[in-house]
Amino acid sequence: MELLKIDYLGQPLRVEGSMAGWQELFWNNELVSQKPASATSNGQYVHEFNIQLNGIKSDEGYDNTPKLLRCRIQLDVQWQPFEVVYKLYVDDELMEDGKRNYKDIEHQVPFELPQTKRTFSLVSLTTFAVKLFKSTKTIKLALAGASLAVYSSLFSLTFGVVLFISLMFHEWGHVLAMKHFGLKTRGIYLIPFFGGFAMRDEKVNTRWQAVVIALMGPCFGLLLSLLYMLVYGMTGDIFFAALASLNALLNLFTLFPILPLDGGHIVKNISASMDIKTVAVVGLGVVGLAGVLGFGLGLTLIALLLLVGSAEIMVAWRKRHDSHLLGLDHYGQFFAAVWYFVTVTCLIGVIWFFAGMGDDMLGLPLRMLQS
After folding, report:
1. Under DSSP, is residue 89 helix (H, G, I), strand (E, B) or coil?
2. Full-prediction pTM beyond 0.70?
3. Strand order in the sheet with 2-8
4. pLDDT tens digits, one per residue of 31-85
5. Given this model, what pLDDT does residue 116 score?
6. Do 187 and 200 meet the contact criterion of CB atoms below 8 Å apart?
7. Residue 275 burial by Cβ neighbours in a 10 Å radius (0-12, 13-18, 19+)
8. What is the assigned CATH class of domain 2-106?
9. How far apart are CA 59 and CA 146, in angstroms?
10. Sign of the alpha-carbon torsion through 319, 321, 326, 327
């Protein structure tokens, strides 16, 4: 991830690093200093490098005499909570200092290497087609219409419309979360048989952003189920009870802790921020919860998926240093985990509530979870 970026003499000076301890310093996108991975990622780092200038512009004019500048950057890095204090020295003179915290990282634009011009090929043609697909509103509307037509023909027009609304509401939650973090979005795409997804132009910078974006879809789905419950309470029409239960099941499915579902992304980003002791405790806790749900409540499908999720936790922790994302602090880990489990519990509660009414149709979602 990008720890630091400042402009000096009109050129970008950038430091990349991770919790594994490695750091790389780039001057005008050229690597000029690096530090290897270490057991301790917190602490002080010093980067020293030289800059060869052909001339220097000043108030008196432009000096064409070549000059070699001796530069040194001192970094004091703390990861939880995240903070970087920096000082830039040129020829032993302090030129700039300051600090960056979690909010600065969260709102920065991720750095991407300049793209080189490519010659025509099958790969470039495919890339062009993908970009055209992403940017064409007509294709987006066509996919949405195709999804509605497919679901309506397989089941009924009413079911197709209900499923369409549920998918749109869910993806709308993702889009609003992206916009909350200032990320540019390309809108919502509905793919027949594959549900839908919200596309963004920019990468996230922190695991907190990734967790919030992933959770807001199911949370919006939960709100829609609660709205259906409210209408059912006002009208007594069992149709709205069925809508609430079905919508809850669809959103619960997206929270299963398996990639590429929302639940898989949530579990991955929480787990990758933990230390080994916490990961071990959480992993054992998930296994225990799976036993309770499977043998105590008969929710066999959820229990099985939780066991898969416990494996996902360990895999995500082992690969935690492969990402540029800034991890969650201890408060963020706890809050995200509680938010996730509360959302799952509420969705199961909606399904359980209507299943207890004795109607075969309303009991179907619960029987699917117990299968």
Report:
1. strand
2. no
3. 2-8, 11-17, 23-27, 30-35
4. 888 888 776 677 788 888 888 777 666 555 555 677 788 888 888 888 777 788 8
5. 47
6. no
7. exposed
8. mainly beta
9. 65
10. positive
